[in-house]
Amino acid sequence: MVDCIMNSIDAMEAEIGYQITNLPESILDKQYENCLFTGSGDSYLAALEVQYLSQYRSVCCHPMDIVTNPDLAKDRSAVVLISVSGRTRANILAAQAARSADTTTIALTSSPESRLAKTCDKTIQLNYKSCGITTSGTISFTASLVACLSLGGYATRLPPLADIYNKALGNAMEVADAMPRPCSCIVLAGGMFFPVASYMALKFNEVFGARAYAYDIDEFCHSPIFGTTKSDQLIILGQSSNTSKTSTNNIPKELESTFSCNFVECSSSSDPNPDPLESLLSGIFTVQLVILSLAKKYRLNECYFLQNTPISKTLFRTSSNLIYYD
């Protein structure tokens, strides 16, 4: 039974903690090769992460790409449409377009009776522990990601989650202690951590109402750097244990002389070549815990998008009207 006084920040904290014991339940037995994954918001980033971890054996695109070009679905073993609610308009339109291309469509959703589920050929229900309160997505994102990775055959078991979580908590508290309240943030990363950077930017938007953008770190230095000011907070995601000569390890030294920078450690191991899935989950847990720690540091009770203010209510209504079917 949900505590009647629980707020959305409390719910987010609880659901972050549920991941330690609940995420292994998202591992699926059924596997499909050569999938096309798609989704919107957090779900798009889960799909994008599968593309990175599968080394492009499976690919992702935005749902509207399938709507405008159904041939993208051809010759795929399945099109997997990720939507926790099952109500996202773009996903439902993409499912209809993919079926017209004579490709198996799979709804990955927590709502097996939803419109998306009824539109697709098959439904896989996401099973994860929830507080039953609307909040910024945490376990819904990781459960979707783990299910997709296992569905594609790229994850058959998970690394020790409690150890990863505990190390991520220490890293997150250090980052949050050093950061002011988010106002304008630019999150940078490369490779498989770019979707995590994008996920972090979405959490800044939802929880704090902050302007936040994510860039691949190399792309940032080509052009967006010229639109960055000293008041912007730069957050760089990477692995300090990685000894390879990558931009993620070298560019921050240049950026620190000009901008306010914070580094987020995305590895729970000192191994110079850590397990990719372990590093990925470490990065996600750390990002979630940074957001939570900042919310607690500044004594927030509700995520920005759920606050009872005229602008928040207007934005929430506008967002819902544009992205969901009734």
Shape: globular
Along the chain, the helix and strand elements come as HEHEHEHEHEHHEHEHEHEHH
Low-confidence runs of at least 5 consecutive residues = 243-247
Q: Structural class from helices and strands?
A: alpha/beta
The number of distinct β-strands equals 9
Radius of gyration: 19 Å
Quick tags:
alpha/beta, 5-stranded parallel sheet, 12 helices, Rossmann fold, 326 residues, 45% helix, 4-stranded parallel sheet, 13% strand
Question: Concise description?
Answer:
Helices cover 45% and strands 13% of the residues.
Please, could you describe this protein's structure?
The protein is an alpha/beta fold and 326 residues long. The chain has two domains: 8-151, Glucose-6-phosphate isomerase like protein, domain 1 (Rossmann fold, 3-Layer(aba) Sandwich), CATH 3.40.50.10490; 161-297, Glucose-6-phosphate isomerase like protein, domain 1 (Rossmann fold). The chain has helices at 8-22, 42-53, 63-68, 89-100, 115-119, 139-151, 161-178, 194-208, 217-222, 247-255, 276-297, 310-323, and strands spanning 36-39, 59-61, 79-82, 105-109, 122-125, 184-189, 211-216, 233-238, 260-265. The strands form two sheets. The protein has a five-stranded parallel beta sheet with strand order 2-1-3-4-5, sandwiched between helices. Strands 7-6-8-9 form a four-stranded parallel beta sheet, sandwiched between helices. Helix 2 packs antiparallel against helix 8 (194-208). The longest helix has 22 residues, at 276-297. The model is unreliable at 243-247 (pLDDT under 50).
